[in-house]
Structures are given as C-alpha cells and as structure tokens.
TrEMBL record:
GO terms for molecular function: carbon-nitrogen ligase activity, with glutamine as amido-N-donor. Pfam families: YqeY. Signal peptide: none annotated. This is GatB/YqeY domain-containing protein. It comes from Piscibacillus halophilus. InterPro entries: Asn/Gln_tRNA_amidoTrase-B-like, GatB_Yqey_C_2, YqeY/Aim41, YqeY/Aim41_N.
Length: 147
C-alpha cells in the first residue's frame, strides 16, 4: 500500500470516528505530498515521500521549540499531537545503538579522522538512515566520533 493510499484510508477512518485534529493533519500531509508531485511534474517515489514527511516533522519540531520558548503550552500541545500523527507514517526510528553502529561503520568506510571530514561522513550516512533518524541527531553523533 502506497503512502497516499494509506493516507486516504486513514482519512476516511478519521472522518468516521470524528477525529477532527487527526483529519486536519492527514489532509495537510496529503496536500504537501500532492504539492511536491505537482512541483516535480511526476509521481513521487518512496524517497520523495519520505523527504516530504521528514520536512513536515522538522517543521513541527522547530515550531514546537519556538512555542515552548514563548511559553505557549496550548500551541505546543497541539503541535506535539500533529508531530505524533506525522511520525506514525515514517518508518520505525533507529535506536541510538543502531545509529551509532551505522555512523562508526561509515566513518571507517570513508576513512574520516577529523572534523574536516564531517561533510563526507554526513553525505554518506544520511542516505543510509533516510527517514529513520533525525538529521541533527546524526550530526551530533558524527561530531562526537570525529573528535
């Protein structure tokens, strides 16, 4: 089942169950996917879909941080709820141990030894963990291992 089919199915279920907030988030995600497809001029691949979902998650995380800094708990709660719904469509996230193994293996493959090799390592790690790990988390882990 493709992501759009799953979204359509979940949208129908949310309508039946009168889950207004869930329905709104699903519609936003679906709209983002359709807008990306229009922009590309072709159907989205699975990687493209993961990119859109990851972008949506990143936007929500950034907003959440801003709302917490501004003491807007009402908006922070709503954003956390949206974040949970969107993340349910992403593949299962890697544990810290699994991510660390991938980072160490990639550092050895690339032959990185210092912070100056950060770009090489990141460009090799990110395709391996696409949609399964947050980029900032990967960045911190790579930085720790290169120091």
């Amino acid at each position: 089942m493709t992501l759009l089919e799953r979204l359509n199915q979940d949208m129908k279920q949310a309508l039946k169950n009168k889950e207004k907030d869930r329905l709104t988030v699903i519609r936003m995600v679906k709209s983002s996917l359709q807008n990306e497809a229009i922009k590309k001029g072709e159907e989205l691949s699975e990687d493209d879909e993961m990119q859109v979902l990851t972008r949506e998650v990143k936007q929500r995380k950034d907003s959440l941080q801003e709302f917490k800094n501004a003491n807007r708990e009402d908006l922070a709660g709503k954003t956390e709820q949206e974040l949970e719904i969107i993340q349910s469509y992403l593949p299962e996230q890697l544990s810290d141990e699994e991510l660390e193994q991938i980072v160490i293996k990639t550092i050895n493959e690339v032959g990185a030894s210092s912070k100056s090799d950060m770009g090489k390592v990141m460009s090799a790690v990110m395709p391996k963990v696409k949609g399964q790990a947050d980029g900032s988390k990967v960045n911190k882990m790579v930085l720790n291992h290169l120091q």
